[in-house]
Amino acid sequence: MILFFKVLYDFLDEFRYLNSYLLYFTIFSSFTMFGNNGIKKENNLDPVNNFDIIPVEVNVKGILHFETEVIITDSKILYFNVEDLFNKLGINVKIENNGNILSGFVENENKTYRIDIGNSQIIVGAKNIKSINGIVQKMNSIYVESNLLTEAFGLNIIFNFRSLSVKLDATFELPKIKQARLEKMRNNISKLQTNTENFKDTIVVRNYHLFKAGTLNWSASTFQTSQSGGANNFGLSLGSELLYGEANVSIFLNSQSEFDSRQLLYNWRWIDNEKKNIKQAQVGKVNSQSISFLKAPLLGASITNSSNAVRKAKGTFTISEYTEPNWTVELYINDALVDYTSADASGLYLFKVPIVYGYTTLKLKFYGLLGEERIEERVMNTPYTFMPVNVLEYNLVGGVLEDENSSQFGRGEVNYGLTRFLTIGGGLEYLSNIPEHTAIPFAHAAIQPFSKMVINMEYAHNVSIKGLVNYYLGSSSFLELDYRKYVEGQQATFNTANEERRVKFSFPSKLYAISTNTKLSYNQFIYNTFNYNQVNTVFSGNYKNYSANFSLTSNWISNSDVFLTSNLAMSFKMTNGLVIRPSIDYNFSSNQLMRYGTVLEKRVSKMSFSATIERNEQIETNNFLLNFKYDFNFARTYFSVSHNNNGFNSSQSAQGSLAFGGDNGYVKTGNNSALGKGGILLYPFLDLNNNGKKDVGEPTVFVKDVKMTNGKAITSERDSIVRISDLNSFVNYNIQFADAELESLSWRFKHHSYQVLVDPNQYKKVEVPILVVGEVSGMIYLHTADDLKGQGRITIQIYNDHNQKVAETLSESDGYYNYLGLKPGNYTIRVDDDQLDKLDYQSSPEEYDAFIKISEDGTIVDGLDFNIKAVEPAVPLEKAEIILTDTSKKASIMHKQSESHFNTSFGKILDQEGLFYSVQIGVFKNYVDSEHLLKFAPVFYEFLADGMIRYISGKFDLKNEAKAAKNKIIVKGVKDAYIVKYKSSKKIDTATIRN
């Protein structure tokens, strides 16, 4: 450490004019670290005397829903039960001093808080807020006023008094929201493992266009050096849909070199997973897996019947590579995010990659502490190619290399799932620039005896034989064995070794807050005259905001001495966000220090700074580097200046993107690439006529929160369009809506979940209909001998104008009932007949007619009260048998009623209006003499379609009255008499009321 500061002093003494840079940087860091200390504020409120404690529904970003208790004062000031709220948000909270103090931390363990009811103050980090009556204790719980929660903790709260609901958001990522985000990511992995998809209300498929322009990328950079002048670079990329596929064209220019065709990139891609024979096709500059080494870009075409959807087989393989220290790395399989991790202090990262069926695009995205983004895309047939049983897939690619000889390349491959654990494949590869054996037949097999072991074997004629074994020991540790033997003199690859032997072992572990990983690897390359050996040992560990990595690398040839070097890298993240990364390289073979240095990094909002100082003892140079980056909404800018023994260097760069077609003149500006991306435009609207389409006069609806997998939805307050940008083309995205996000209780989403396939290089319009529903309500009263009271647990049924039951509800304990959710139209509301029969009750009235009209606010039909009471017992009748016959002498036994009737005329059912019940006496082929039916007056008849005549007895408003009349007729001998129901002279199906 003394040596480090000596070098620093010598360096700054040599370049005194640079001292000001470090001084400014130190002052900036100090102000950031200590500038907030001692902030005090007072916030006084009126005393809390008259209040109510009620439960409210809390909605956090449409993702988290829960119920918590609040205090509402007479002046409508809201207080939250902090302990209950924090527990449900996942914020750390502890009770101290017999419930008078709440403490814990927010965002991270370094930002602590303390709520002290005795001193009426909240301390969060460096903030100290005193509030008289803003913190109260009621019912042994501490309550904090809502605005005070916003000020102290960054919890933004919007309370709706009508619905007693709260919309809550935070200036930081809440633990429960983070958990939901990670759960969503795990669900992506789970989908890979199960090959299942969730049911969606609506599936939105591709829209095809012959041509549609949509995206643009631009970049510019310049470099200056004190020795050789400078250079300028420019780049422009255009993206569109052309001939139903994605078309991208890019050109890159450099001021120091002449234009070369390899600076022009173009590609056309078409995907349709619903097709059988060809699911994907590409034309232009394409990527291909190859046995041969391709030393130039490939200009050609490819087709395959393999889907771009991720289809998961069992098992995993491991990616263990290096990037920049502390960078975040995301893993995408076929454009679906499945995992992410952070590199350690040396840049080491590790992924367990799920094995998927078929040809796979594996993509890694790297994000630096200064906001840098780098994408490494590998198009590969993963080390383990598995197919479902009895499924065959092929891949064909061919074209010309952009080398000096315009070499021709072609490759055809098939894979077949022979069993669940065995896949075989093979094909032919051709490369014209190989001096001998331009054609390479090959075959391979993948075996998975059980989920933790995978074996892959490959034979390439006149090139090589390969074998690879991956075995997981326990849940995390893994062992990998790799063996390759090359045919002597082969020229397909640049490898000159006869054999390659590799062994890798990784052992991750975790104890409390400390996580470690030990990685061992051994590589041996066998040549004709010597063997080259390499052993690498890496120990890495993390504890809270600290990480360290120590590696030992040894190399030797045959029996020669070992060359042993080491690297130690550490990373410390301070409470103010400053990251310090010292590192050192040491040569144990010569006992010499090779290199040492320190990097300081700091990110503030959209700005990032870094300073690097380094001493290289091997070439005796001092290096100093300053970086500054600022992210605008439309561009990412970068500036750097460096100095070494050779002089000064500086560079500046800017990059951005434009996405067109966002409607209403909206152009999406961004600082990342938009090429090959797409977007979704959601149009929530009130579907007043219920046709699912937005018509003239139907207003749009503002929906703030929309749940989306792997995307961010932004709703415009100007036009209420929900715009979702930066989505991958040809990929399905799931979108969910919640009725709780709508401002009116009378509004309902027609479909709550959508699956949308993104079109390339453009925004896709999706209309989201919202129905306006009506409400019916009333009371159920029970009549007894001397009382009238509300009756609960009574079922009320709702029928549409086609006599189809569309809904039902139960009355509450006080007799009140309501149902909200009826589309515009005519409805009939009545008490459940079956329940009345079981209870031996009758209802008055029998039913209500309700009309829900088209309205933006929804129709409310209330006052639909029903009175129910016990059915009166039937009076026994005097029996006297008579014979009833029609003119064809058909007879039926009936009984004479003791009382006399004077109305001997029959009425026509066709003349009867309104709704009524009756009792069917019989259906006859001919007329029945009126004297035979005199005792059942009033009697009505109608002609049926087959010429028969139906006779019914009586007109009753209540079913129970008809039931009593039916019992009397049955007693008289008409055993098959039953109740019928008519509405406006039309008989209604009464299959459910025959008894």
From TrEMBL:
<dbReference type="InterPro" id="IPR013783">
    <property type="entry name" value="Ig-like_fold"/>
</dbReference>
<protein>
    <submittedName>
        <fullName>Copper amine oxidase N-terminal domain-containing protein</fullName>
    </submittedName>
</protein>
